[in-house]
Amino acid sequence: MATNKITDLAYRNLKPADKEQNIADGGGLYIRIRSIAEGGAVSFRFRYLAHGKQIWMTIKAKSLPEARNKRNTFKDWLKQGKNPADEAKLTIERNRADQLAEQAELARLEALISVNHLFERWVSTKLIERKDLPEIKRMFAKDVLPVIGDLVVTEIKKGHITEVVDELIKRGSKHTARNVLKLMRQMFRFAVSRDVIEFDPTANLALADTTVKPTERDRVLSQDEIKLLKTKMPDAGFIPSTECAIWLMLSTLCRVGEISKAQWQHVDIQNKLWNIPAENSKNGKAHAIHLSDFALAQFQRLAEFKQHDIWLFSNRGGTGHVCDKSLSKQIDSRQNPVIHQCRTKANQSLVLPGGKWTPHDLRRSGATLMGDLGVSGDVIEKCLNHSEENKLKRVYQHQKLIDEKMAAWDLIGERLAVLTGDNANVLPFKRIKNLY
């Protein structure tokens, strides 16, 4: 360590003179004071010998203590055989390289996005017109984002995906696990297409191996079960509107989402017509349903117990239609053998001999009943508002079979009136067979 020659007091009292001054502080450190004519600026210099030559180098320092620390560093370098001038340049270059690397890393981190941000981008660009968007948001908010939402997308591995899926399987929600995996795959493929990630972390996960194989439901309520359902309905504790919704799904073959979103402006009781707009239909096709006397009676009952001026089935706050899942949950909870898992004591009030049934099974049951009544398959498909799978037929056959559909809806309405005891003056079942 070099011995300092100048005290702090002496340093503070240094003044410029007519000529430039170089005042030694020891160890090769000099305090340089410019002449009065040059402004009297104070700076620091270091003198040393290298290869037999005397070398002066400027020390960038704002104070004498800082200059002394750098002098000591330079002297250590000399003892190690390093040239202070060269080493100082290398240090500057290293610092600059470190700064550039740090800036590059910061830029990289800023460019990275979390799964939460990816989901928002996916929703706002690819899913904005999806009719099931509310349900997708609900599933991700409940089962996906709490697990991986805060992780950076590029860090997501197969293990993160299986963690989400396995939690759903543990809960017994195997079909939900399958649907969630399919949706996550769509989201990560979107990320690949946008160059957010290079590889899809779900690519090597087979749906069947990771979750369960899809099952095609074939549950159909028999006519005896429909009779029994009528007798069991009062014990279920439903409000009148829920009962009406069940009979409408059975008599009109509508989807649960279509009945949940139904608005009074689309119901023409006088002309016995219910128009389902394209935005409420699963396949995006508007659908006009002729109301049989049986179906019309359900709408009239709904009008009698009217809940809302806009929605046939409003949510509790009256701010919109009821959730699509509401009817499903209500029906499911009344077929549950474990009472503490339900919100109602009538947990087995709607159990039927053929096994558990869902709102979609009512749609299938109505279509099957139409077939039993002799309605042709083409007409039933029109009543279901299914999209034609055959491309040629879809392009060239636009017949709507309006009269045939009206007759089909009247037929099923008459039969349901008989089965439920709501109409004693109905033509006997035998005469229907010859209509088609």
UniProtKB/TrEMBL annotation:
It comes from the Bacteria. Pfam families: Arm-DNA-bind_3, Phage_int_M, Phage_integrase. This is Integrase. GO terms for biological process: DNA integration; DNA recombination. Residues 216-410 form the Tyr recombinase domain. The lineage of its organism: Bacteria, Pseudomonadati, Pseudomonadota, Gammaproteobacteria, Methylococcales. Keywords: DNA integration, DNA recombination, DNA-binding. It comes from Methylomonas lenta. One of its GO terms (molecular function) is DNA binding. PANTHER family: PROPHAGE INTEGRASE, PROPHAGE INTEGRASE INTS-RELATED. Belongs to the 'phage' integrase family. Gene3D superfamilies: 1.10.150.130, Integrase, DNA-binding domain (3.30.160.390), Intergrase catalytic core (1.10.443.10). Residues 113-192 form the Core-binding (CB) domain. InterPro entries: CB, DNA_brk_join_enz, Integrase-like_cat_sf, Integrase_catalytic, Integrase_DNA-bd_sf, Integrase_DNA_bind_dom, Integrase_recombinase_N, Phage_int_M.
